[in-house]
Amino acid sequence: MTAVRSAARTPVPPVERPGVLVLRLGPFSHALHIRRLLVSAAMLALALGLLTLSLSLGDRVIPPERLLGAFLPDAPRMDRLVVTQWRAPRAVAALVFGACLGASGAVFQSLTDNPLGSPDVIGLNTGSFSGVLVVMLLGGTGVGVLAGGAVAGGLLTAAVVYVLAYRGGLQGFRLIIVGIAVSAVLTSANTWFSVKSSLDVSLRAAVWGAGSLTPVRWDSLGMVAAAAAVLFAAMPLLARWMRALELGDEAATMLGARVERAKILLVIVGVALTAIVTAAAGPIAFVSLAAPQIARRLRRTGSFDPAGSALAGMVLLAAADAVAVHAIPGAVLPVGSITVCIGGLYLVWLLLREGRRA
């Protein structure tokens, strides 16, 4: 018996196979998938390239070689103003917010085991927007207050969807159907509140509801980035739970996971990632839907990976924002309108693809 327990405690080294690099340090070893590393590096490079493009282009074109100099104290005043105060908050926000939305989409698609199980489809974006709208109706204006309303609205919506969908366990398809129904109710309520509220609140709600990075400044971006850093710090543990839950509740229980507790914590983190973005920029749809699927196909992983999905979300939102800013000369579109157009086409393709499989 002692020998069996000792063998059970001995780490099993990763199996060497083509495309996998095994790193060993004494008794410890770790497998690195070369394709996943290369794809991740390519997505990161593309995201940084889009960041450089967003900082460079505009009415005042600033060459890439002058961008770093614009952050120095002795930089030309106009270059410093344009880059650090006008363009950089929006460009950096596109990367941070895209990462949050991509990771949140991975969490919920893993929980539901369905490509449609993203926060924008099951109503969590709408719930976060409802929380912001209620705060606006009560007279709240600060970024922190709006963020609290968004998180509260998203968590309350998630709780309602969870309770209505729970029948001796949480099944992905039931969660999606209930979420779509709750989202429809909340959308109607949001429209009614917007119509009945004052003109000022209605205009603010309309701008917020379009999903735009234009109002983002360093203070609001700093709050979102700080919250995102805390949430992403928990991602390695959450990713382990996600892989276990994707095997099924019984298998996850045999592996030592507390299934319902893990699901609740995953829902809370996923809602928080979506809510902090909604509080700062409004509901930005379809990034959470598309990013996990793109990352999964490019990296060829069998499970949903929050890290890869975050990188894909960064690229998607940064590209959509570049289109929103530069597609029409003299006009800046809400980034939410671009993601809705792209996401709508993607959703049609996804539905047709799933229909052919069925």
Automatic annotation (TrEMBL):
Matching SUPFAM superfamilies: ABC transporter involved in vitamin B12 uptake, BtuC (SSF81345)
Keywords, alphabetical: Cell membrane, Membrane, Transmembrane, Transmembrane helix, Transport
Annotated organism of origin: Brachybacterium hainanense
Annotated family: Belongs to the binding-protein-dependent transport system permease family. FecCD subfamily.
Membrane protein topology class: Multi-pass membrane protein
Key word Lyase present: no
Listed transmembrane segments: 37-57, 91-112, 132-165, 172-193, 221-239, 264-287, 332-352
Main location: membrane
Protein's name according to its UniProt entry: FecCD family ABC transporter permease
Signal peptide as annotated in the record: none
InterPro entries associated with the record: ABC_BtuC-like, ABC_transptr_permease_BtuC
